[in-house]
Amino acid sequence: xxxxxxxxxxxxxxxxxxxxxxxxxxxxxxxxxxxxxxxxxxxxxxxxxxxxxxxxxxxxxxxxxxxxxxxxxxxxxxxxxxxxxxxxxxxxxxxxxxxxxxxxxxxxxxxxxxxxxxxxxxxxxxxxxxxxxxxxxxxxxxxxxxxxxxxxxxxxxxxxxxxxxxxxxxxxxxxxxxxxxxxxxxxxxxxxxxxxxxxxxxxxxxxxxxxxxxxxxxxxxxxxxxxxxxxxxxxxxxxxxxxxxxxxxxxxxxxxxxxxxxxxxxxxxxxxxxxxxxxxxxxxxxxxxxxxxxxxxxxxxxxxxxxxxxxxxxxxxxxxxxxxxxxxxxxxxxxxxxxxxxxxxxxxxxxxxxxxxxxxxxxxxxxxxxxxxxxxxxxxxxxxxxxxxxxxxxxxxxxxxxxxxxxxxxxxxxxxxxxxxxxxxxxxxxxxxxxxxxxxxxxxxxxxxxxxxxxxxxxxxxxxxxxxxxxxxxxxxxxxxxxxxxxxxxxx
Length: 492
Known about the structure:
Blueprint: H1 9-18, H2 23-36, E1 43-46, H3 48-60, E2 71-75, H4 102-109, E3 113-118, H5 157-164, E4 170-175, H6 181-187, E5 190-193, E6 213-218, H7 221-231, E7 261-265, H8 275-290, E8 294-298, H9 306-321, H10 342-353, H11 356-369, H12 374-397, E9 402-406, H13 423-427, H14 434-439, E10 443-450, E11 456-463, H15 468-482
Parallel strand pairs: 2-3, 2-4, 7-8, 7-9
Antiparallel strand pairs: 1-3, 4-6, 5-6, 5-10, 9-11, 10-11
């Protein structure tokens, strides 16, 4: 039975349609694996009864979509009706929404089964899944015989762990500065951040509204295409949702990239880049060339300013978005002393409810938005963002179809390794990924190889806006050449 949880979405879909397996059997297999995997900290709100009810309904519904009967994990950032949705924060303790996010509504309408809610960094602020009120999510991969626990990346660390450890067939993630692609690379799975506006943000707890975008985290490119189609579409409840038709992303997976132009940005050749990552990037470039693509050196001159701009804009938007958590309407409320007024209630509630990283970013955001510093920091960052976006527009206008880069500057590091480090060291994990969020472009991470310690490394492809089908096909061609099949040894 446990072998069923190892199936890819496409394999399970075909087996379900042929009657070789039932959704109840698939769901039971995943629930069994979840119960054995508490050491990984991936699932934080398990919903076995709901999952079995959904599985039975899927088995009875022979006319369901591609995800009919497929067991998925849902990141705790997505509001799910009647199920705790805390964004991994103490300030939302006990919050059970009376509504369903658009993304989960669409997945469930397609027949998907929810196994439970997945761990994450608090309010999606983090690159290691160490800021969660639930505790750390743990990477299922280990360094050789070393027992040190490793980060699965963040903020979608629970989603990455659950998919990599075969606890579910796929999972939802969100990506504000790399939070789908970085954990996907750290755990040897595939993750795509679509174009900003392709997937509705309604019912997804906000971090930075102009950067946040939901996407799938899966075992391969085909599964990402299947999930992305179900998640995408115009939503009148989200003013940033694009009113565009949703292509059949799976149908685009021909593997034929002959004549496509792949850009290699010189600015991504960072000082101190590990030789293994540099070689992987070169190997990936060669594979795409061998598949018929034209390789072109390109320049994205404002890349060096991306991280500073991101870490001004994202905290500024977070400061505004998190102002609503005040202990009045829902979630945690601090115990007050006699004589305390509403100001003291706000202060104590937010001090108790928010973790240190969230407090840090809220304070940074409030600072850069303050009257004396708005122009010096926030407005300047917005101008840099426009220049970064223009860099990509110029490259695409010059005939480039996709851009190949590393996904991360390293493989997974030890949990706690950066606990006492300068926070900027943690922020550097996003160095290859934040540009796509600032420019609103689609980006995908695919597993590309193992480092000397046997840990996964990923490559990233960045595509033209709204051309996820073409991007997925290029990733599919790369995946076919890479032939990454390694899995973590089950130690949990």
